[in-house]
Design brief:
Radius of gyration: 20 Å
CATH topology of the largest domain: Aminopeptidase
Oligomer: single chain
Strand order of the largest sheet: 1-2-3-4-11-5-10-9-8-7-6
Structural class: alpha+beta
Largest sheet: 11 strands, mixed
Length: 309
């Protein structure tokens, strides 16, 4: 496997969740956020030789997703090989799909746009593009000086209201709504469940509108990722999920992003990042007005055999 990893090293770097942080070296990111995951996941791998070339597919079964959605769910994490032959790689991908589909299952991968050869091979083998994500980030947080707004930390007492907002403010282009394997109701309920669990500790903080006399019909979650700060050598945190009622909290998306920027800076972050779908143009405009810049792009591909007889 060492030779396969070495051949793919320049592309594997883009699988690091922090690849847009230039202060952290390539080796730091590979050694802390890519290679350990490949080694850990090698116990769940599929190896196949095609036309004399070895291929190793590192994947994992997701127990929570499997239970929640009622379908066996696998995530393909990495594909290792040492050649540039698309037809050979496509055959290997097809073999892996057949291996996974010995049972009824759903399989997906989040893949950086730089891994174009693998993207093409996966698509020819049967995967479909579900979502394209753009990641934006901001440094220079000591220079952040936007107007302040009244927000508060949401609590479990806010669960039912914020779950309702999550259901109502549907994004047709996110992975769960765009992939036909999920019903609209299941996708809505998943996002409602996400904010519910965030309030129970899955996220480090959830902010909501706190203006007097205004309903708290908006929220923004974030994770500090402090366990990664020493490994990366740079404190980086992430804004994760948001929803804002267009009827009662119009304009509060920008306010929540701005206040969360202050909050994450105050807890020690030097960089902040978040991602959204490439279709979400209003969000890009808001982020860029607040000094955020494009960091990277990824794609979500999926395939399943759940409707086969």
């Amino acid at each position: 496997m060492k030779d396969l990893v070495e051949f793919r090293k320049s592309i594997l770097y883009f699988y690091s969740p922090y690849n847009f942080i230039r202060e952290a070296s390539v080796d730091t990111q590979l050694n802390n956020f890519v290679f350990p995951q490949i080694e850990f996941g090698s116990g769940n791998s599929y190896k196949v030789h095609v036309d004399g070339f070895e291929h190793q597919f590192v994947f994992q079964k997701l127990p929570w997703d499997t239970s929640y959605f009622g379908m066996t769910t696998y995530k393909l994490s990495y594909v290792l090989f040492a050649h540039r032959d698309e037809s050979v790689l496509t055959k290997a991908c097809s073999s892996f799909i057949e291996f996974v589909f010995r049972e009824k299952a759903y399989l997906f991968i989040e893949i950086p746009s730089e891994d174009i050869l693998l993207i093409q091979a996966l698509c020819k083998a049967g995967f479909a593009l579900i979502e394209t994500r753009l990641t934006y980030y901001r440094g220079n947080l000591d220079q952040y000086n936007e107007p302040r707004y009244a927000v508060r930390k949401a609590t479990e007492a806010d669960s039912q209201n914020l779950m309702r907002v999550a259901r109502e403010m549907r994004n047709e282009y996110d992975r769960f709504h765009a992939d036909s394997v999920f019903s609209t109701r299941a996708a809505d309920e998943f996002l409602a469940t996400y904010v519910e669990q965030s309030l129970k500790g899955f996220s480090d903080v959830v902010l909501t509108s706190g203006e007097s006399g205004l309903p708290s019909d908006s929220f923004l979650t974030a994770k500090y990722f402090k366990s990664d700060w020493n490994k990366l050598g740079v404190p980086v945190s992430k804004m994760v999920l948001s929803a804002v009622s267009a009827n009662t909290n119009k304009g509060w998306y920008k306010k929540l992003i701005s206040e969360m920027t202050y909050h994450l800076r105050d807890v020690g972050a030097k960089y902040i990042f978040m991602n959204t779908q490439s279709t979400n143009r209003a969000v890009f405009y808001t982020w860029e007005k607040l000094g955020y810049s494009l960091g990277c792009a990824t794609h979500v591909l999926s395939v399943n055999n759940l409707k086969e007889s």
